[in-house]
Design brief:
The chain is an alpha+beta fold. About 40% of the residues lie in helices and about 15% in strands. The chain has helices at about 1-30, 40-50, 65-70, 80-110, 135-145, 150-165, 175-185, 185-190, 195-200, 300-325, 335-340, 410-415, 445-450, 460-490, and strands at about 40, 75-80, 205-210, 215-220, 220-230, 230-235, 265-270, 285-290, 295-300, 345-350, 355, 365-370, 370-385, 390-400, 405, 420-425, 430-435. Helix 6 packs across helix 7 (about 175-185) and helix 7 crosses helix 9 (about 195-200). The termini are far apart.
Protein backbone atom coordinates (compact mmCIF):
# COMPACT_ATOMS: atom_id res chain seq x y z
CA UNK A 1 0.00 0.00 0.00
CA UNK A 2 2.81 2.34 0.79
CA UNK A 3 4.23 2.41 -2.78
CA UNK A 4 0.75 3.00 -4.22
CA UNK A 5 0.12 5.95 -1.93
CA UNK A 6 3.51 7.36 -2.77
CA UNK A 7 2.79 7.02 -6.46
CA UNK A 8 -0.58 8.74 -6.13
CA UNK A 9 1.03 11.59 -4.17
CA UNK A 10 3.63 11.95 -6.91
CA UNK A 11 0.88 12.14 -9.56
CA UNK A 12 -0.96 14.85 -7.62
CA UNK A 13 2.22 16.83 -7.17
CA UNK A 14 2.91 16.54 -10.91
CA UNK A 15 -0.61 17.83 -11.68
CA UNK A 16 -0.11 20.83 -9.37
CA UNK A 17 3.23 21.56 -11.00
CA UNK A 18 1.67 21.33 -14.47
CA UNK A 19 -1.20 23.64 -13.50
CA UNK A 20 1.20 26.19 -12.02
CA UNK A 21 3.40 26.04 -15.12
CA UNK A 22 0.37 26.51 -17.40
CA UNK A 23 -0.77 29.49 -15.30
CA UNK A 24 2.68 31.07 -15.47
CA UNK A 25 2.74 30.51 -19.24
CA UNK A 26 -0.61 32.25 -19.63
CA UNK A 27 0.65 35.20 -17.56
CA UNK A 28 3.76 35.44 -19.69
CA UNK A 29 1.64 35.34 -22.85
CA UNK A 30 -0.63 38.10 -21.57
CA UNK A 31 2.35 40.21 -20.55
CA UNK A 32 3.98 39.69 -23.95
CA UNK A 33 0.90 41.00 -25.80
CA UNK A 34 1.47 44.49 -27.22
CA UNK A 35 -1.02 47.32 -26.67
CA UNK A 36 -3.15 48.29 -29.66
CA UNK A 37 -1.30 50.62 -32.04
CA UNK A 38 -1.95 54.35 -31.93
CA UNK A 39 -2.83 56.21 -35.13
CA UNK A 40 -1.36 59.53 -36.23
CA UNK A 41 -4.55 61.12 -37.55
CA UNK A 42 -2.74 64.19 -38.83
CA UNK A 43 -0.57 62.07 -41.13
CA UNK A 44 -3.64 60.04 -42.18
CA UNK A 45 -5.44 63.27 -43.09
CA UNK A 46 -2.48 64.37 -45.22
CA UNK A 47 -2.50 61.07 -47.13
CA UNK A 48 -6.23 61.33 -47.77
CA UNK A 49 -5.74 64.74 -49.39
CA UNK A 50 -4.22 63.08 -52.48
CA UNK A 51 -6.39 64.26 -55.45
CA UNK A 52 -6.10 60.84 -57.09
CA UNK A 53 -8.03 59.06 -54.33
CA UNK A 54 -11.74 58.30 -54.53
CA UNK A 55 -13.95 61.29 -53.63
CA UNK A 56 -17.01 63.14 -54.88
CA UNK A 57 -15.20 64.65 -57.84
CA UNK A 58 -13.26 61.46 -58.75
CA UNK A 59 -15.40 58.27 -58.51
CA UNK A 60 -12.36 56.01 -59.13
CA UNK A 61 -8.94 55.87 -57.51
CA UNK A 62 -5.92 56.06 -59.80
CA UNK A 63 -3.23 53.39 -59.71
CA UNK A 64 -0.51 55.86 -58.74
CA UNK A 65 -2.54 57.21 -55.82
CA UNK A 66 -3.34 53.64 -54.64
CA UNK A 67 0.33 52.60 -54.77
CA UNK A 68 1.41 55.76 -52.98
CA UNK A 69 -1.16 55.19 -50.23
CA UNK A 70 -0.21 51.53 -49.73
CA UNK A 71 3.45 52.47 -49.64
CA UNK A 72 3.05 55.02 -46.84
CA UNK A 73 0.03 53.83 -44.87
CA UNK A 74 2.17 52.03 -42.26
CA UNK A 75 3.73 55.35 -41.26
CA UNK A 76 0.49 56.48 -39.64
CA UNK A 77 0.97 53.93 -36.80
CA UNK A 78 2.97 55.28 -33.86
CA UNK A 79 5.85 53.02 -32.80
CA UNK A 80 6.23 51.40 -29.38
CA UNK A 81 9.05 53.72 -28.39
CA UNK A 82 6.86 56.71 -29.12
CA UNK A 83 4.04 55.16 -27.11
CA UNK A 84 6.36 54.52 -24.17
CA UNK A 85 7.57 58.10 -24.32
CA UNK A 86 4.00 59.31 -24.39
CA UNK A 87 3.18 57.05 -21.43
CA UNK A 88 6.12 58.44 -19.48
CA UNK A 89 5.05 61.98 -20.27
CA UNK A 90 1.47 61.18 -19.23
CA UNK A 91 2.67 59.67 -15.95
CA UNK A 92 4.77 62.76 -15.27
CA UNK A 93 1.86 65.04 -16.05
CA UNK A 94 -0.36 62.94 -13.75
CA UNK A 95 2.18 63.35 -10.97
CA UNK A 96 2.24 67.10 -11.52
CA UNK A 97 -1.55 67.23 -11.47
CA UNK A 98 -1.67 65.07 -8.33
CA UNK A 99 0.85 67.28 -6.58
CA UNK A 100 -1.12 70.34 -7.64
CA UNK A 101 -4.31 68.75 -6.29
CA UNK A 102 -2.60 67.90 -3.01
CA UNK A 103 -1.44 71.50 -2.64
CA UNK A 104 -4.97 72.68 -3.20
CA UNK A 105 -6.21 70.14 -0.65
CA UNK A 106 -3.79 71.30 2.06
CA UNK A 107 -4.39 74.96 1.28
CA UNK A 108 -8.17 75.04 1.16
CA UNK A 109 -9.09 72.11 3.40
CA UNK A 110 -10.31 69.79 0.70
CA UNK A 111 -10.11 69.43 -3.10
CA UNK A 112 -13.55 68.65 -4.48
CA UNK A 113 -12.97 69.31 -8.16
CA UNK A 114 -12.19 66.84 -10.90
CA UNK A 115 -8.84 66.29 -12.57
CA UNK A 116 -6.77 69.42 -13.02
CA UNK A 117 -6.65 70.56 -16.66
CA UNK A 118 -3.60 72.21 -18.12
CA UNK A 119 -4.33 75.46 -19.90
CA UNK A 120 -3.73 75.40 -23.63
CA UNK A 121 -1.12 77.67 -25.21
CA UNK A 122 -2.19 81.27 -25.69
CA UNK A 123 -1.30 81.12 -29.36
CA UNK A 124 -4.22 78.81 -30.14
CA UNK A 125 -7.45 80.18 -31.45
CA UNK A 126 -10.77 80.08 -29.67
CA UNK A 127 -12.03 77.35 -32.02
CA UNK A 128 -9.69 74.71 -30.56
CA UNK A 129 -9.80 75.80 -26.91
CA UNK A 130 -11.50 73.88 -24.14
CA UNK A 131 -14.15 75.18 -21.79
CA UNK A 132 -11.49 76.22 -19.30
CA UNK A 133 -12.09 79.90 -18.50
CA UNK A 134 -8.37 80.48 -18.08
CA UNK A 135 -7.77 79.91 -21.78
CA UNK A 136 -10.34 82.50 -22.81
CA UNK A 137 -9.27 85.10 -20.25
CA UNK A 138 -5.66 84.79 -21.43
CA UNK A 139 -6.69 85.58 -24.99
CA UNK A 140 -8.94 88.38 -23.82
CA UNK A 141 -6.12 90.00 -21.86
CA UNK A 142 -3.84 89.70 -24.86
CA UNK A 143 -6.45 91.39 -27.08
CA UNK A 144 -6.94 94.19 -24.59
CA UNK A 145 -3.21 94.66 -24.37
CA UNK A 146 -2.89 94.96 -28.16
CA UNK A 147 -5.66 97.59 -28.25
CA UNK A 148 -4.12 99.73 -25.52
CA UNK A 149 -2.86 103.00 -27.11
CA UNK A 150 0.24 103.10 -24.90
CA UNK A 151 1.12 99.52 -25.78
CA UNK A 152 0.63 100.20 -29.51
CA UNK A 153 2.77 103.32 -29.28
CA UNK A 154 5.54 101.42 -27.50
CA UNK A 155 5.50 98.68 -30.10
CA UNK A 156 5.61 101.26 -32.91
CA UNK A 157 8.66 102.88 -31.34
CA UNK A 158 10.37 99.48 -31.12
CA UNK A 159 9.62 98.85 -34.78
CA UNK A 160 11.00 102.24 -35.80
CA UNK A 161 14.20 101.62 -33.87
CA UNK A 162 14.58 98.19 -35.45
CA UNK A 163 14.05 99.53 -38.99
CA UNK A 164 16.11 102.66 -38.38
CA UNK A 165 19.21 100.62 -37.53
CA UNK A 166 19.28 99.43 -41.14
CA UNK A 167 20.81 101.56 -43.86
CA UNK A 168 18.28 103.04 -46.32
CA UNK A 169 19.50 100.79 -49.13
CA UNK A 170 19.06 97.71 -46.90
CA UNK A 171 15.37 98.31 -46.18
CA UNK A 172 12.77 96.82 -48.48
CA UNK A 173 9.75 98.65 -49.88
CA UNK A 174 7.53 96.76 -47.42
CA UNK A 175 9.63 97.98 -44.49
CA UNK A 176 9.56 101.55 -45.79
CA UNK A 177 5.78 101.37 -46.09
CA UNK A 178 5.51 100.02 -42.54
CA UNK A 179 7.72 102.87 -41.30
CA UNK A 180 5.52 105.42 -43.09
CA UNK A 181 2.35 103.96 -41.60
CA UNK A 182 3.84 104.25 -38.11
CA UNK A 183 5.10 107.80 -38.62
CA UNK A 184 1.63 108.87 -39.75
CA UNK A 185 0.39 108.14 -36.20
CA UNK A 186 2.67 110.79 -34.67
CA UNK A 187 1.13 114.29 -34.69
CA UNK A 188 4.58 115.87 -34.37
CA UNK A 189 5.38 114.47 -37.85
CA UNK A 190 2.07 114.91 -39.69
CA UNK A 191 1.86 118.59 -38.66
CA UNK A 192 4.90 119.50 -40.77
CA UNK A 193 4.75 117.13 -43.77
CA UNK A 194 2.01 115.55 -45.89
CA UNK A 195 1.37 111.82 -46.05
CA UNK A 196 2.36 111.59 -49.71
CA UNK A 197 5.76 113.19 -49.13
CA UNK A 198 6.30 111.25 -45.90
CA UNK A 199 5.93 107.95 -47.74
CA UNK A 200 8.72 108.97 -50.12
CA UNK A 201 10.96 110.26 -47.32
CA UNK A 202 10.91 106.97 -45.40
CA UNK A 203 13.25 105.51 -47.98
CA UNK A 204 15.89 108.08 -46.93
CA UNK A 205 15.42 108.16 -43.15
CA UNK A 206 18.50 107.36 -41.04
CA UNK A 207 19.24 106.64 -37.39
CA UNK A 208 21.39 108.97 -35.27
CA UNK A 209 22.74 107.68 -31.94
CA UNK A 210 24.42 109.90 -29.32
CA UNK A 211 25.93 108.08 -26.34
CA UNK A 212 26.87 111.09 -24.20
CA UNK A 213 24.97 113.59 -22.09
CA UNK A 214 24.94 117.39 -22.57
CA UNK A 215 25.65 117.16 -26.30
CA UNK A 216 24.35 120.06 -28.41
CA UNK A 217 22.48 119.02 -31.55
CA UNK A 218 21.73 121.38 -34.43
CA UNK A 219 18.18 120.89 -35.71
CA UNK A 220 18.70 123.19 -38.69
CA UNK A 221 20.36 120.32 -40.58
CA UNK A 222 17.19 118.20 -40.73
CA UNK A 223 14.11 116.88 -39.01
CA UNK A 224 14.60 114.67 -35.94
CA UNK A 225 12.12 112.31 -34.24
CA UNK A 226 13.11 111.13 -30.76
CA UNK A 227 13.04 107.34 -30.43
CA UNK A 228 14.98 106.99 -27.18
CA UNK A 229 16.07 109.39 -24.45
CA UNK A 230 15.12 113.04 -23.98
CA UNK A 231 16.43 116.48 -24.97
CA UNK A 232 16.00 120.06 -23.81
CA UNK A 233 15.41 122.80 -26.45
CA UNK A 234 17.83 125.72 -26.36
CA UNK A 235 15.61 128.07 -28.40
CA UNK A 236 11.98 128.57 -29.26
CA UNK A 237 10.40 127.46 -31.53
CA UNK A 238 12.22 124.16 -31.81
CA UNK A 239 10.24 122.92 -34.87
CA UNK A 240 10.08 124.83 -38.16
CA UNK A 241 6.67 124.68 -39.84
CA UNK A 242 6.38 125.42 -43.54
CA UNK A 243 5.60 129.07 -44.23
CA UNK A 244 6.57 130.35 -40.74
CA UNK A 245 9.98 131.77 -41.60
CA UNK A 246 9.11 135.00 -39.80
CA UNK A 247 9.57 133.21 -36.47
CA UNK A 248 13.32 132.99 -37.13
CA UNK A 249 14.06 136.58 -38.10
CA UNK A 250 15.82 137.24 -34.80
CA UNK A 251 19.53 136.40 -34.95
CA UNK A 252 19.51 135.24 -31.33
CA UNK A 253 16.23 133.39 -30.71
CA UNK A 254 14.95 133.52 -27.14
CA UNK A 255 15.15 130.43 -24.93
CA UNK A 256 11.89 128.57 -24.20
CA UNK A 257 9.84 129.78 -21.27
CA UNK A 258 10.10 127.41 -18.32
CA UNK A 259 11.71 123.98 -18.39
CA UNK A 260 10.73 122.18 -21.61
CA UNK A 261 11.75 118.55 -22.12
CA UNK A 262 11.17 116.62 -25.34
CA UNK A 263 10.75 112.86 -24.87
CA UNK A 264 10.08 109.82 -27.07
CA UNK A 265 7.65 110.66 -29.87
CA UNK A 266 8.43 114.40 -29.92
CA UNK A 267 10.31 116.09 -32.75
CA UNK A 268 12.59 119.05 -33.42
CA UNK A 269 14.34 120.53 -36.43
CA UNK A 270 13.17 121.43 -39.94
CA UNK A 271 12.59 119.86 -43.34
CA UNK A 272 13.42 123.04 -45.28
CA UNK A 273 16.78 124.70 -44.99
CA UNK A 274 16.55 128.15 -43.37
CA UNK A 275 17.74 130.97 -45.58
CA UNK A 276 20.58 133.22 -44.43
CA UNK A 277 21.29 130.94 -41.48
CA UNK A 278 24.41 128.98 -40.72
CA UNK A 279 23.96 125.26 -40.01
CA UNK A 280 25.66 125.68 -36.60
CA UNK A 281 23.56 128.64 -35.46
CA UNK A 282 21.63 128.49 -32.19
CA UNK A 283 18.29 128.23 -33.97
CA UNK A 284 16.54 124.85 -33.48
CA UNK A 285 19.30 123.54 -31.18
CA UNK A 286 18.69 121.04 -28.37
CA UNK A 287 20.81 119.41 -25.67
CA UNK A 288 20.73 115.73 -24.74
CA UNK A 289 19.65 114.93 -21.17
CA UNK A 290 20.45 111.20 -21.09
CA UNK A 291 23.59 109.16 -21.84
CA UNK A 292 22.00 107.36 -24.80
CA UNK A 293 19.67 109.12 -27.22
CA UNK A 294 18.41 107.83 -30.57
CA UNK A 295 16.80 109.93 -33.32
CA UNK A 296 15.22 109.17 -36.69
CA UNK A 297 16.67 111.89 -38.94
CA UNK A 298 15.68 113.17 -42.39
CA UNK A 299 18.10 115.75 -43.76
CA UNK A 300 17.08 118.96 -45.49
CA UNK A 301 18.93 117.96 -48.67
CA UNK A 302 17.02 114.64 -48.86
CA UNK A 303 13.74 116.47 -48.36
CA UNK A 304 14.54 118.99 -51.11
CA UNK A 305 15.56 116.26 -53.55
CA UNK A 306 12.39 114.28 -52.76
CA UNK A 307 10.16 117.31 -53.35
CA UNK A 308 11.85 117.94 -56.70
CA UNK A 309 11.37 114.31 -57.74
CA UNK A 310 7.69 114.34 -56.77
CA UNK A 311 7.14 117.61 -58.62
CA UNK A 312 8.90 116.34 -61.74
CA UNK A 313 6.97 113.08 -61.66
CA UNK A 314 3.68 114.93 -61.20
CA UNK A 315 4.45 117.29 -64.08
CA UNK A 316 5.35 114.36 -66.34
CA UNK A 317 2.09 112.62 -65.45
CA UNK A 318 0.09 115.74 -66.33
CA UNK A 319 1.91 116.16 -69.63
CA UNK A 320 1.30 112.52 -70.53
CA UNK A 321 -2.42 112.87 -69.81
CA UNK A 322 -2.77 116.03 -71.91
CA UNK A 323 -0.79 114.67 -74.85
CA UNK A 324 -2.92 111.48 -74.80
CA UNK A 325 -6.13 113.45 -75.23
CA UNK A 326 -7.38 113.56 -78.84
CA UNK A 327 -7.92 117.33 -78.64
CA UNK A 328 -4.38 118.12 -77.47
CA UNK A 329 -2.18 115.50 -79.15
CA UNK A 330 -0.99 118.02 -81.79
CA UNK A 331 -0.23 120.86 -79.40
CA UNK A 332 3.34 122.21 -79.15
CA UNK A 333 5.24 121.42 -75.96
CA UNK A 334 5.36 124.98 -74.61
CA UNK A 335 1.56 125.54 -74.48
CA UNK A 336 1.15 122.07 -72.98
CA UNK A 337 3.57 122.96 -70.18
CA UNK A 338 1.61 126.12 -69.43
CA UNK A 339 -1.67 124.23 -69.35
CA UNK A 340 -0.22 121.40 -67.23
CA UNK A 341 0.99 123.90 -64.62
CA UNK A 342 -2.66 124.84 -63.91
CA UNK A 343 -3.88 121.28 -63.33
CA UNK A 344 -4.90 119.96 -59.91
CA UNK A 345 -5.86 116.36 -59.15
CA UNK A 346 -9.27 115.53 -57.70
CA UNK A 347 -11.25 112.32 -57.08
CA UNK A 348 -14.98 111.59 -57.02
CA UNK A 349 -16.91 108.47 -55.94
CA UNK A 350 -19.41 106.69 -58.15
CA UNK A 351 -22.86 108.25 -58.84
CA UNK A 352 -21.62 111.83 -58.41
CA UNK A 353 -23.06 114.57 -60.64
CA UNK A 354 -20.07 116.54 -61.94
CA UNK A 355 -22.14 119.01 -63.97
CA UNK A 356 -25.85 119.26 -64.79
CA UNK A 357 -27.43 119.96 -68.15
CA UNK A 358 -28.28 123.66 -68.51
CA UNK A 359 -25.67 124.79 -65.95
CA UNK A 360 -22.18 126.18 -66.36
CA UNK A 361 -19.37 123.72 -65.87
CA UNK A 362 -17.43 124.45 -62.63
CA UNK A 363 -14.12 123.33 -64.17
CA UNK A 364 -12.41 121.79 -67.18
CA UNK A 365 -11.96 118.08 -66.57
CA UNK A 366 -9.53 115.55 -68.02
CA UNK A 367 -10.33 111.90 -67.30
CA UNK A 368 -7.38 110.08 -65.74
CA UNK A 369 -9.14 106.92 -64.55
CA UNK A 370 -12.70 105.68 -64.23
CA UNK A 371 -15.75 106.21 -66.38
CA UNK A 372 -18.52 108.82 -66.63
CA UNK A 373 -21.96 108.65 -68.23
CA UNK A 374 -23.19 111.48 -70.46
CA UNK A 375 -26.94 112.06 -70.05
CA UNK A 376 -29.43 114.16 -72.03
CA UNK A 377 -32.98 115.13 -71.11
CA UNK A 378 -35.92 113.97 -73.23
CA UNK A 379 -39.64 114.82 -73.07
CA UNK A 380 -41.95 111.79 -73.29
CA UNK A 381 -45.66 111.03 -72.88
CA UNK A 382 -46.40 108.69 -69.97
CA UNK A 383 -49.69 106.75 -69.83
CA UNK A 384 -51.27 106.54 -66.38
CA UNK A 385 -53.26 103.48 -65.15
CA UNK A 386 -56.54 105.35 -65.77
CA UNK A 387 -55.62 105.86 -69.45
CA UNK A 388 -54.64 109.53 -69.25
CA UNK A 389 -51.32 110.75 -70.59
CA UNK A 390 -48.97 113.31 -69.11
CA UNK A 391 -45.70 114.91 -70.14
CA UNK A 392 -42.58 113.76 -68.28
CA UNK A 393 -38.87 114.47 -68.48
CA UNK A 394 -36.40 111.62 -68.32
CA UNK A 395 -32.61 111.21 -68.56
CA UNK A 396 -31.13 109.18 -71.39
CA UNK A 397 -27.55 107.84 -71.36
CA UNK A 398 -26.16 108.99 -74.69
CA UNK A 399 -22.54 107.92 -74.20
CA UNK A 400 -19.65 107.75 -71.81
CA UNK A 401 -16.35 109.46 -71.10
CA UNK A 402 -13.28 107.24 -70.81
CA UNK A 403 -9.71 107.99 -69.68
CA UNK A 404 -7.83 110.66 -71.68
CA UNK A 405 -11.08 112.40 -72.70
CA UNK A 406 -12.05 115.91 -71.56
CA UNK A 407 -15.17 118.00 -71.01
CA UNK A 408 -16.25 121.51 -70.07
CA UNK A 409 -13.79 123.58 -72.16
CA UNK A 410 -16.40 125.52 -74.18
CA UNK A 411 -18.63 126.07 -71.16
CA UNK A 412 -15.77 127.57 -69.13
CA UNK A 413 -14.15 129.59 -71.94
CA UNK A 414 -17.40 131.08 -73.33
CA UNK A 415 -19.19 131.17 -69.96
CA UNK A 416 -22.22 129.29 -71.30
CA UNK A 417 -24.29 126.34 -69.99
CA UNK A 418 -23.20 122.86 -70.90
CA UNK A 419 -25.46 120.80 -73.18
CA UNK A 420 -25.44 117.55 -71.17
CA UNK A 421 -25.17 116.10 -67.68
CA UNK A 422 -22.06 114.19 -66.64
CA UNK A 423 -22.36 111.59 -63.85
CA UNK A 424 -19.60 109.30 -62.60
CA UNK A 425 -20.32 105.61 -63.28
CA UNK A 426 -17.33 104.42 -61.22
CA UNK A 427 -14.79 106.00 -58.89
CA UNK A 428 -13.11 108.69 -60.98
CA UNK A 429 -9.83 110.60 -60.79
CA UNK A 430 -9.69 113.83 -62.77
CA UNK A 431 -7.19 116.49 -63.76
CA UNK A 432 -9.06 119.73 -63.10
CA UNK A 433 -8.49 123.33 -64.23
CA UNK A 434 -10.56 125.95 -62.44
CA UNK A 435 -11.88 128.96 -64.41
CA UNK A 436 -9.95 131.56 -62.40
CA UNK A 437 -6.66 129.86 -63.22
CA UNK A 438 -7.20 130.37 -66.95
CA UNK A 439 -6.41 134.06 -66.41
CA UNK A 440 -2.75 133.05 -66.00
CA UNK A 441 -2.62 131.88 -69.63
CA UNK A 442 -1.60 134.20 -72.44
CA UNK A 443 -3.98 135.11 -75.27
CA UNK A 444 -2.41 132.75 -77.80
CA UNK A 445 -2.80 129.71 -75.53
CA UNK A 446 -6.42 130.64 -74.77
CA UNK A 447 -7.24 130.87 -78.48
CA UNK A 448 -5.51 127.56 -79.12
CA UNK A 449 -7.52 125.98 -76.28
CA UNK A 450 -10.80 127.30 -77.69
CA UNK A 451 -10.03 126.16 -81.24
CA UNK A 452 -9.05 122.65 -80.12
CA UNK A 453 -12.14 122.08 -77.98
CA UNK A 454 -15.61 120.95 -78.96
CA UNK A 455 -18.91 120.78 -77.10
CA UNK A 456 -19.38 117.52 -75.23
CA UNK A 457 -21.94 115.53 -77.27
CA UNK A 458 -23.18 118.83 -78.69
CA UNK A 459 -23.96 117.41 -82.17
CA UNK A 460 -26.96 115.37 -81.00
CA UNK A 461 -30.41 116.31 -82.26
CA UNK A 462 -33.78 115.72 -80.59
CA UNK A 463 -34.51 112.86 -82.99
CA UNK A 464 -31.27 111.14 -82.01
CA UNK A 465 -32.14 111.44 -78.32
CA UNK A 466 -35.67 110.07 -78.84
CA UNK A 467 -34.36 107.19 -80.94
CA UNK A 468 -31.80 106.25 -78.27
CA UNK A 469 -34.50 106.43 -75.60
CA UNK A 470 -36.78 104.08 -77.57
CA UNK A 471 -33.96 101.57 -78.10
CA UNK A 472 -33.10 101.54 -74.39
CA UNK A 473 -36.76 101.13 -73.38
CA UNK A 474 -37.25 98.22 -75.78
CA UNK A 475 -34.12 96.56 -74.48
CA UNK A 476 -35.25 97.04 -70.87
CA UNK A 477 -38.71 95.59 -71.57
CA UNK A 478 -37.19 92.61 -73.38
CA UNK A 479 -34.87 91.87 -70.45
CA UNK A 480 -37.75 92.11 -68.00
CA UNK A 481 -39.83 89.70 -70.13
CA UNK A 482 -36.99 87.16 -70.30
CA UNK A 483 -36.44 87.37 -66.56
CA UNK A 484 -40.12 86.89 -65.76
CA UNK A 485 -40.34 83.89 -68.14
CA UNK A 486 -37.36 82.18 -66.52
CA UNK A 487 -38.75 82.82 -63.04
CA UNK A 488 -42.13 81.36 -64.00
CA UNK A 489 -40.50 78.20 -65.37
CA UNK A 490 -38.35 77.73 -62.28
CA UNK A 491 -41.22 78.32 -59.85
CA UNK A 492 -43.54 75.98 -61.76
CA UNK A 493 -42.11 72.93 -59.96
CA UNK A 494 -41.62 74.73 -56.68
CA UNK A 495 -37.90 75.32 -57.22
CA UNK A 496 -36.59 78.32 -55.33
CA UNK A 497 -32.94 79.09 -56.16
CA UNK A 498 -30.92 79.80 -53.05
CA UNK A 499 -33.23 77.90 -50.69
CA UNK A 500 -33.27 74.29 -49.44
CA UNK A 501 -31.27 71.82 -51.48
CA UNK A 502 -30.89 74.39 -54.30
CA UNK A 503 -28.78 76.62 -52.06
CA UNK A 504 -25.74 74.39 -52.58
Amino acid sequence: MIPVVAAMSLVKSDEKHLRSSQKNGQNRALSSEQPPPMIDYQFLHQMCQDPGLHNRQHPETTDEAHQQFMKNYHKMFITNSSQSKLAIMDSKSDKVKASHASLLTHASGGYTGGPVKESLPKTQTVDVLTHDIRDHTALLHKTRKSEDPEYVRTENIKTLRKLGRKYPFERTSVENTAMADILKTFPSVTEVVSHKVLTELCGLAQMDVWSEEDITLFGSTGFHLILKGSVAPQSYPYVHHKGNASEFRCSTPPPPEGEVVLTVGDAFGTFERLENREPNSRILTVKTLEPTCEFLRITCSDYKRTIEQISHRDQTEKMTLLSSSPSYDLWPRQPLLKLASLIAWISFPANTVLVGEGFKSPFIGFMKSGECHVLRKVEIKHTLPNGKQEQRTKQVVMGKLCPCESFGEISVLLDEPISCSIVTATAVELAMIEPQKLKELDEVTLQLLQQSSTRTFGNLSEDDIHEEYMQQELKREWNEYKHSAVVDVINYKGIRPGYGKWSK
